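Sequence of Phenylacetic acid degradation protein paaA (Blastococcus saxobsidens).
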Amino acid sequence: MSAPALERPRADGPPDPAALQERFDATIAAGQRIEPRDWMPGGYRKTLIRQIAQHAHSEIIGMQPEGDWLLAAPSLRRKAILLAKVQDEAGHGMYLYAAAETLGADRADLTDKLIEGRQKYSSIFNYPTLNYADVGVIGWLVDGAAICNQVPLCRSSYGPYARAMIRICKEESFHQRQGYELLMTMMRGTPEQRAMVQDAVDRWWWPSLMMFGPPDEDSPNSAQSMAWGIKRHGNDELRQRYVDMSVPQAAFLGVTLPDPEIAWDAETGHYRFGRIDWAEFKRVISGDGPANAERIARRRAARDDNAWVVEAATSYAQKQAEAAA
Ligand code: BYC
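Predicted 3D structure, token representation.
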């Protein structure tokens, strides 16, 4: 539902800033949506651009680890599935850049900021994919974590972001299932295939827990983002939800999660888990992960090598607009 109509401007001038803030606060308190033309505080706009841009960058950079296996998929069926998935990620990036544009951001500028290291993307995509089981584990764990984090974003207070997330989440569900199905197939295969799956789980489990962001007490943005209804839950709550969901899935698959401290806690009704290496997380998000340099170099090459396409399309659009005028 969109925000209630703004009060008419006073006859003698623009709307009163206090009235605008009051209307914004009332819209958020009523659980209604803020739309692009509604007034919003500068901090709300800035936070949304930061989060949506980081999210869009994650989808685009996230094409690389799996894209690396497109030419080495073990069968035509697996190749068709992987191709569709990687293309979906490109689409997610596009919806999200479009949502950021409704806030006044410029897409080319956001890409420059990503390449120059002035905007982040998800830590998870700075780890390499070493064998085909990694494709399955990305689908199961990475897309699984993404679903836990993103389903609540379908109720985010900013309309274009929330609406983009609905389609994205539907596609992420397919991604998770194809990953789990690939892993089930491998687990029913040879001992070598089972070992590949276990190895991939060992490498991706801890980084997948880091996708949810720092613990709430070290998360500078969470409290304000939750008050604004951009985020609906804290990082720790969503991380716990993900652990609770993944432990039985791992048991059904027949793999061991690489954390001896995982145990059911009947008192809390949740699984306990071990300490996350936050020093590693900080290293990876500050640019020093195993694949950061490679990811950014490839994104930079894609921007530079394809600059002529952007120039041609821009010039064509300009000529069309001139002809229409
Ligand atoms: N990696 O105050 P906090 C996908 C940053 S792609 C890197 O808690 P916030 C897929 C954080 O941005 C899905 N940076 O922040 C694609 C902030 O940065 P600033 C990706 C991280 O925003 C292809 C600082 O640390 N999902 O599914 O309240 C193939 C402090 O953190 C990370 C999204 O983007 C991280 N893991 O909460 C397969 C979801 N965590 O202020 C799959 C949308 C934190 O220094 N985003 N930071 O610029 C969100 O939900 C929130 O932004 C976060 C962080 C929960 C991630």
